[in-house]
Every structure is written in structure tokens, then in C-alpha cells.
What we know:
By secondary structure, the chain is α+β, with helices and mostly antiparallel strands. The chain is built from three helices and four strands, in the order ααββαββ.
Amino acid sequence: MRRLIVTLIAAATMLGSGILGSAAVENCRTGDSALCASDSNCHWDFQRRGCYQGPAAHVDPCAVHDGKDICNADTTIGCKWNVDSNACEQAK
């Protein structure tokens, strides 16, 4: 009888932890970037190393170009050098 009670308590504990684990992934609370990326309501932030709710902040892909010549030569994603801000920006 005691073994049955211990077995039932252990089974209830295991089931409860499984439910809590799946709820954590649903609320973007996971440390796994692959699980985070698979959920359309979450995004992985590489700077803060975590999974967060909502879409990722937009980052200008042309911002990595430091020089004017390199910026203007990148026609693949449409980069243009902005003289006012002295930075490379994506043409709109």
C-alpha cells in the first residue's frame, strides 16, 4: 500500500513538472534558441542571450558597412551612404 502511494505521488509530480515545462516554452521562457525560433510569438535576442515575446527589433542590414565605398558598392540589399548622418543606410 505504501509503495502505491509513493508511486502515485511520484507520477503526479512528474506530470505536473511536464505541464509547467510546456507552459514555459509557450510563454517564451526557454533557454533554447531553436525552440524559441520555432514559436512565431517569440524571438531570440543574441545581445541579451534569451527568448523574448514579440517580434525582433528591426536592425538595418547596411549598418555594418563603415566605409562609403563599401556601402555604395553593396547593391544586393540596396545600401546608400547618408552624408548627413555619416553612416550607411538601406535605401527606402
